[in-house]
Each structure stands twice: as C-alpha cells, then as structure tokens.
Specification:
Shape: rod-shaped
Largest sheet: none
Radius of gyration: 20 Å
Number of helices: 2
Order of helices and strands: HH
Structural class: mainly alpha
Distance between the termini: 64 Å
Length: 59
C-alpha cells in the first residue's frame, strides 16, 4: 500500500513539473519578440513547403 502511494506521489510530482515547465516555456516564447519572429519565419517556410505541389520551396 505504501509503495503504491509513493509511486502515485512521485508520478504526480514529475508530471506537474513537466506541465509547469512547458507552460513557462510557452509564455516565454510567446512574449519574446525574437522568438515570435523566428517562429513566424519557420512556420511561413513550412506553409510554403507543404503548399507547393513539387515539394520544393517557393522562390
């Protein structure tokens, strides 16, 4: 019984840390202007790549 409770507690703690870290990273990347510009550039290239029938970047 004690081992099960310990495992649940450790699992909850690790998952909580992962979620909080992801939330902080998302907030940082959203608020940082350099990251926003880089993200838009990368997403724009991916859209160009996926929308081209030849599978190449538009020039």
């Amino acid at each position: 019984m004690a081992l099960g409770i310990t495992q649940i507690f450790i699992s909850f703690t690790i998952n909580f840390i992962i979620v909080m870290t992801a939330a902080k990273m998302a907030a940082f990347l959203t608020k940082n202007p350099l990251c926003v510009r880089a993200k838009k550039m990368v997403y724009g290239q991916r859209i160009d790549f996926s929308s081209n029938k030849n599978g190449a970047f538009k020039t």
